[in-house]
Design goal:
Helix content: under 10%
Shape: elongated
Structural class: mainly beta
Strand content: over 45%
Distance between the termini: 68 Å
Number of helices: 2
Low-confidence stretches: 1-17
Mean pLDDT: 88
Radius of gyration: 26 Å
Strand order of the largest sheet: 5-2-1-9-11
Largest sheet: 5 strands, antiparallel
């Protein structure tokens, strides 16, 4: 009995581990129809593994902190791993896609004279109390958002747990059907261009939605999200320097070249990798004796390319190198990309154009590649030089402009 219990526990842990935790900005609606046949379309803006669970409900909020009950829930469980930019459409009474638990869920129906749809993660039984609920997105259409009085099936308060930037509000009484069109006009095709954050902002802009009182035909959507480097790191190992990186939105990428340099300026190809994966790992088995700088060259199918930030590994020695300071024009927050052979105390000395010291900041770095944030918000507007020191060793001198 104990063995069976242990096995069940392991299976439960394995199943839970596949579910991806999402946040506002990771998912958004593309269209919704409340007339004739209920229908909605949404896009994910983050890679999700198989087993990721996302909840949908037409229940609104009876107050700013309490969910209204009496309406329905729809559960989406990813049947496979899906990449950022994947679009799903649910239609009442249909049979595809198979990721949904129902195509006619109890009490789940859009009101053709105003309603809402909220997307969240958490147990549907906790909706009323909002305990352990993560609100991801909301749309209100056909009626004004309440500020007083009792909520009904087609009305809602704005939840305090969901920022207004994540709640699309289409309060016009005729806005019971609609879709993102880019300019507010009817269209048969649209293109989603830009970063995931830029696309999300556009999708939450009410003036870019076309709405009407009768059912709409959702336009064909072309998704052109640029590749996003989620993580990029290199560390020393017994086999050499281990290089790993994770990407998202590899829709138009032909291949990726890992480049290496001994001085951080002149790079050559280390290895060419075919695109199509999410996680990459390779070994530089013959690293340079000293500092090895690495960067990625991402080549699109049209031949254009972009370069990643530079990281470094220090072999056979001690010390640290700065691989980047940005932005060079800032209102206060400066980021420093740093690679150290050991955990070190790094000093940053800010001087003005007359050579006067304006600030000194000391930060403990970690072994390997890291990004350090420097708060320069207290500095007066003007030009500054940042001298980076490790003990008595100067790692570099960089110019920034504080606005």
């Amino acid at each position: 009995m104990k063995k069976i219990y242990t096995l069940l526990m392991l299976l439960a842990i394995k199943l839970v581990s596949f579910s991806q935790t999402l946040a506002p900005g990771d998912i958004a609606l593309l269209g919704i129809n409340a007339s004739t046949t209920d229908k909605f379309s949404f896009i994910i803006l983050k890679n999700i593994p198989a087993g990721t669970v996302i909840q949908f409900t037409d229940n609104g909020f009876s107050s700013a902190t309490a969910g209204r009950t009496g309406e329905g829930f729809l559960t989406f469980t990813a049947a496979a791993a899906y990449t950022s930019g994947t679009i799903f459409t649910w239609t009442n009474g249909a049979t595809t896609p198979t990721d949904f638990n129902s195509f006619n869920p109890s009490n789940f129906a859009f009101n053709a004279s105003g309603d809402q749809l909220f997307i969240f993660q958490g147990a549907t039984t906790d909706w009323a109390t909002q305990t352990n609920i993560t609100l991801l997105y909301g749309i209100n259409y056909g009626a004004a958002i309440l500020t007083t009085g009792a909520a009904a099936a087609g009305t809602t308060y704005a939840p305090t747990a969901l920022a207004s930037a994540n709640l699309l509000n289409l309060p016009t009484s005729t806005a019971n059907n609609g879709y993102y069109s880019g300019d507010g006009n009817s269209t048969s095709t649209i293109s989603l261009n830009g970063t995931s954050a830029e696309v999300y902002t556009n999708l939450l802009t009410a003036s870019k939605w076309f709405t009407q009182s009768s059912a709409t035909t959702f336009p064909a959507v072309a998704v052109l999200l640029p590749l996003n480097i989620v993580s990029f790191d290199a560390t020393k190992s017994t086999l050499g320097n281990m290089i790993s990186f994770t990407t998202a939105n590899e829709l138009n990428v032909q291949y990726i070249i890992v480049e290496r340099s001994s001085d951080g300026r002149n790079f050559s190809e280390l290895q060419k990798l075919s695109a199509g994966r999410t996680n990459y790992q390779l070994v530089d088995a013959s690293p340079i004796n000293g500092t090895n700088y690495y960067r990625l060259k991402i080549v699109d199918k049209d031949g254009s390319f972009k370069l990643s930030k530079t990281i470094a590994v220090i072999n056979n020695g001690k010390g640290a190198v700065v691989t980047g300071i940005y932005p060079t024009v800032s209102t206060g927050n400066i980021k420093v990309d740093l690679s150290t052979a050991n955990a070190e105390q790094i000093r940053f000395v800010f001087t003005d154009v007359l050579g006067r010291t304006s600030a000194i900041k000391t930060v403990a770095s970690v072994n390997g590649n890291s990004t350090i944030s420097l708060d320069a918000s207290n500095l007066a507007a003007g030009m500054y030089f940042i001298k980076v020191l490790q003990g008595n060793n100067q790692l570099g001198n960089y110019k920034i402009i504080k606005q």
